[in-house]
Amino acid sequence: MNTFDLGILHFLNTFAQRNMAADEVLWTLTRNVLVLGGVPFTLFWYAWFHDRDARSENREFLIFGLLAAMASLFIARVIAEALPFRVRPLHNPALSFMLPHGADPSTLVGWSSFPSDHAAVFFCLAATLWFVSKPLGGLAFFHAIFVVSLPRVYFGIHYPTDVIAGAVLGIGVASLCKIANLRKAATRPLLHWMDTRPDIFYAALFFFTFEAAELLNSVRNLVLRGLHLARLL
Predict the structure, then answer these.
(1) Fewer CB within 10 Å, N or C, the chain?
(2) Of 84, 124, 92, 96, which is closest to residue 108 (Cα–Cα)?
(3) How confident is residue 52, by pLDDT bands cut at 50, 70 and 90?
(4) Contact (Cβ atoms closer than 8 angstroms) between residue 115 and residue 162
């Protein structure tokens, strides 16, 4: 355990269980999909329709950023599975971690903490919005830091370095949109689909942003239930 992680964790943990209402609010921030995913994707849709030029470069950035966010999630999970298992702070007996009020001690048991897939996705989206609009990007970065990441460290779900690694991953993947040829190649078929079948395109885009907002949890649950049912049959 490095001193950087330990220092921040021990400092934040001194505030645990001091105020039940504050702990409950912060726990809600770590679990509520509307708070976590709804905010950045509201900014995403605002940015999409704020620019009325259907073929604008901004829409290329937004489409690429959405694809990049899902790629960041996938890469984060691959890294977590490939690297040695890292037990989460709330499950690490060596830390004597004091669990704040309202938290579930069984949260993410068996899941490695490094890197943070939440940080990867939401910092990727924040970087994407920053490329489109500095004010929107600033709001999204504020959300990624203080709503998504900080509460997850406070509740021992992640070490600070998990969040930093996820943020670097997400911003790095989003920054690939600066390569114009890559961005245009990735988004051209989807924008053509928007031009030819806007009804299907927008239905699919809504579904995709809905699932991205909850980090594909509904899809993952359906797959797991389907596998369980297949074993029973």
Answers:
(1) C
(2) 92
(3) low
(4) yes
